[in-house]
Amino acid sequence: PLVLGIETSCDETGVGIVRGREVLANTIASSMAEQARYGGVVPEIAARAHLEALRPTLDAALAEAGVGLGDLDAIAVTAGPGLAGALMVGVGAAKGLAAATGLPLHGVNHLVGHVTADLLHARGAEPQPEELPTVALLVSGGHTSLLLVRDLLTDVEPLGETLDDAAGEAFDKTARLLGLPYPGGPSIDAAAADGDPAAIRFPRGLSSGKDRQRHRFDFSFSGLKTAVARHVEAAGDDLRVADVAAGFREAVVDVLVTKALDACAETGVPRLLLGGGVVANRRLRDVAVQRCAAAGVALRIPPFSLCTDNGAMIAGLGARLVAAGVAPSPLGFGVDSTLPVPVVQV
Ligand code: ATP
Ligand code: MG
Ligand code: FE
């Protein structure tokens, strides 16, 4: 099926068009530059930016795919989780389009969308075999989730998530502590290149003792952030930003990869899929590649344009729902900023 996907859960306005698993268009506008002035995503600004960007992004996607609205079989839109005001812009637009065209509309789960990214392939390229079950680690500015995916539509099980900050959020907040620019991920990555990751050992949250037993697959980054803040204060003028950046990055990466591989071992699933904007982190990729190879776990990392928030993954999930004969969402559906993961469609 030919499906249009709309994604507005955070600061990316994404419109994608797929034919089955083939990506015909994946157009993205981002309010990141505007958000940079505030050192984080401001929900109000994100919502307003979606409102302005949606129409041109939609037109660009249709042009790129070379299709018209009349060619589509269905529309899919992110219904949650995400920022309520931002989600509402996408859902409102999708309902308008559905009403105007008579097309069926599927309100879908953003996190399952991230998992779907791995099933998509570029225009004209050979599709890779679908490999399920898989453990999925989704790490971005808004989420840090470990999932067990046995079936995309019927069996996505949450194993754990962050109890406080998301991994990307931890990068952003820590960068601010170090006087590095937003977004913090890339700037910490750059600063860490000249640092010694072993110079300062920062805490690995929920990784030892009782915490680890109780929260085997959960994450916590607020203690790490506090440890960096204390270190910065104590170091004063002697602060070595490169070493702190390297030590911080090492702690985040270590905890993410360790817990993901623990999940593979415990579930007996020898596959790990990565998704989300933090996947841009060089060290995360390197450590994941090394440790997965050592553990005999097959690692999958979709192209970066499908790792960050995008419309193609939402369209891809919509196409799966259509192909499976799932009825569209009732038109009265609303957004759900905390939509839980087992709910694939609202
Ligand atoms: P959502 O949480 O809904 O997916 P988001 O906009 O917060 O939305 P993304 O756009 O996927 O998430 O990712 C942005 C986040 O990724 C930011 O927190 C940013 O700091 C982080 N990030 C980007 N590049 C890197 C990097 N090289 N290393 C670590 N983190 C990175
Ligand atoms: Mg973003
Ligand atoms: Fe996301």
From TrEMBL:
Subcellular location per the Swiss-Prot or TrEMBL entry: Cytoplasm
Keyword DNA-binding belongs to the record: no
UniProt-annotated binding residues for substrate: L138, V139, S140, G141, G142, D172, G185, D189, N281
EC numbers for this chain: 2.3.1.234
Top EC class for this record: transferase
Source organism superkingdom: Bacteria
UniProt GO MF annotations: tRNA N(6)-L-threonylcarbamoyladenine synthase activity
UniProt record similarity statement: Belongs to the KAE1 / TsaD family.
Reported function: Required for the formation of a threonylcarbamoyl group on adenosine at position 37 (t(6)A37) in tRNAs that read codons beginning with adenine. Is involved in the transfer of the threonylcarbamoyl moiety of threonylcarbamoyl-AMP (TC-AMP) to the N6 group of A37, together with TsaE and TsaB. TsaD likely plays a direct catalytic role in this reaction.
Protein name (Swiss-Prot/TrEMBL): tRNA N6-adenosine threonylcarbamoyltransferase
Source species of the chain: Amnibacterium endophyticum
Lineage, highest ranks first: Bacteria, Bacillati, Actinomycetota, Actinomycetes, Micrococcales
Gene that this sequence comes from: tsaD
